[in-house]
Amino acid sequence: MKRLEVVELGEDIVFSTLERLSSDIFVSREVLRPDYVPESLPHREREIKALTEHIAPIIRGERPSNIFIYGLTGTGKTAVVKYVTNRVSQFAAKKGLNHLSIAYVNCRHEDTTYRALTELALSLGVKVPFTGLSTAEVFKRFKEALNRAGNVLVAVLDEVDFLVKKNGDDLLYRLTRINSELRGGKVSLIGITNDVRFTETLDPRVKSSLGEVEMVFSPYDADQLRDILMERASRAFKPGVLEDGVIDYCASIAAREHGDARRALDLLRVAGEIAERENAKKVTVRHVKEARYEIERNMIIDVAKTLPFHGKLVLLVIALGGGKFNSTGDLYIKYRELARGLGAEPVTQRRVSDIISELDMLGIVTARVINRGRYGKTREVVLNVDPNTLIKAFKDDARLAWIFKNDRY
Ligand SMILES: Nc1ncnc2c1ncn2[C@@H]1O[C@H](COP(=O)(O)OP(=O)(O)OP(=O)(O)O)[C@@H](O)[C@H]1O
Ligand SMILES: [Mg+2]
After folding, report:
1. Considering only the top CATH level, what class is 221-302?
2. Whose CA is nearest to atom 25 of ligand 1?
3. Separation of 260 CA from ligand 1 center, angstroms?
C-alpha cells in the first residue's frame, strides 16, 4: 500500500485562507453586494409611498393601474419595487388575503417570450416545461390558471427593454389586452427600464396602456449617496475601519457618474477588499482610488470578452505589441500575420480601421489621429488596460489558444 506522506508546505493554504476570511475589515461584505435587498431605502420614501398607493387597490381585489418606471441605472428602481411588492405580500399574508399574486421577472435573464411567460405562470403555481410547448400554449395555460384562481396578478417586468429588443412587444401587447379576455382574474403590469428610448420602440397602444401611471426615479446627488453608503457601511464594516473621507469620496465619484448607487456601493466594497488583500487595518481614500481603477479595468475586460473574433484579434495584436501602435498600417500587417497564423481569413484594412473606431467608442482603446506631413495621416492606437491582463483574459478563448501555445509570442 502506498504510504501517504505528510508534506510540510511553505505556506499553509488552509490557514492563510481562513485567516483572510475571518476579516479585519468586514463584518459582512454581503451587505454591499448588488443583489442584497436592504431593509431601508433612504431618499426613496416618496417613491415607496407613491408605488404603494398605486398598488393598494389590489387589497380590495381591484386591478391596480399599469405602471411604467423609468430611471437611470442604480437609482433604486429594482430595490424599491422589490421592497414594496414584498411588503404587500407580507401584509396580505398577515390579513389572510389570498386573492393576490406577485410575479417578478427579470427580462434580462428571462429574455424570451416563452421564458417570461413561464415565470408568470409559475407565480400562479403552474409549472411549464422549459421547452417543448408553443408560446401560444404557454399563454393559454397561463390564462387558464388566472381564470381558475381568480387572482389579481401584479406582473413586474424588470429590465423590460431586453425582452422587447429581442422579441418585439408582442407579449406586452397581449398582457395589456388580457383583462378583456379573462373571466376570472386580472393582470396589472409594472414595467421597469433604464433605457430612455424604450417607449419609442413600442406600439402606441402598448405604450399608452403600459404607461397608465408613470414614475421617474431621479439620480441621487452626493449627499443622498453618502446617506445610503453610511447606512450600509455601518452593517458591512467593522467599527472604526473606514478612514474619514472614504464614504464622501465614494459618494462624490458616483454622483459625478450619473448618481448611481450601485457604483457607489461597488466602490466601497472593492476598496474594502483591496485593503483586506493588503492586510491593512483601515480602508483609505487610496484604496477607493485603486478600486475605481480595478472596477473600470474589469468592465473593459468583460466587454472585450464579448467581442467578435476579429475584434478580439485586433485587440490581441495591440496587447502583444505592448499596448500601443503608432500607425494603423503597422497594426494591420501584424493583424494579418496573426490571422493567417490562426488559419483565419483576414478582414480588409478598411474593416480593421472600423474595428478600431468601435473599440475606441467602447472605451477599450484610445485612437488619435496623427498627421505625418507628406506621409499623410494615420492613427495612434493605445490600449486602455494593461496588455497582460487582456492577454490573460483571452487565454480561455479556444480559437485564440494556438497563439499562446506558440513560443513566438
Ligand atoms: N435608496 C437606497 N438606499 C439603499 N440602497 C439603495 C438605494 N437605492 C439603490 N440602492 C442600492 O443600489 C443598488 C442599485 O439599485 P437598484 O438595483 O435598485 O438600481 P436600478 O435602478 O434597478 O438600476 P438598473 O437600471 O441598472 O437595474 C442596489 O444594491 C440597491 O440596493
Ligand atoms: Mg434594476
Report:
1. mainly alpha
2. 73
3. 8
What is the homologous superfamily of the domain 45-217 according to CATH?
P-loop containing nucleotide triphosphate hydrolases (3.40.50.300)
State the DSSP string of 332-381.
HHHHHHHHHHTT-PPPPHHHHHHHHHHHHHTTSEEEEEEE-GGG-EEEEE
Index of the ligand 1 atom closest to the CA of residue 217 = 21
> At the topology level of CATH, where does 307-405 sit?
Arc Repressor Mutant, subunit A (1.10.10)
> How do the pLDDT tens digits run along the chain, 409 residues long?
455 555 455 556 776 666 556 788 998 888 898 888 888 899 999 999 999 999 999 999 999 999 999 999 999 999 999 999 999 999 999 999 989 999 999 999 999 999 999 999 999 999 988 888 999 999 999 999 999 989 999 999 999 999 999 999 999 999 999 999 998 899 999 999 999 899 988 999 999 999 999 999 999 999 999 999 999 999 899 999 999 999 999 999 999 988 999 999 999 999 999 999 999 999 999 999 999 999 989 999 999 999 999 999 999 999 999 999 999 999 999 999 999 988 899 999 999 999 999 999 998 999 999 888 888 888 999 999 999 989 988 887 878 877 776 655 5
Q: Helix H segments across 284-327? A: 285-305, 309-320
All structural domains of the chain with their residue ranges: 45-217, 221-302, 307-405
The model carries a pTM of 0.82
Residues, the chain: 409
The CB of 43 under 6 Å from ligand 1? The reply is yes
Distance of CA 208 from the midpoint of ligand 1 (Å): 27
In contact, 41 and 84? CB cutoff 8 Å: no
The yes-or-no answer to whether 45-217 and 307-405 have a common fold is no
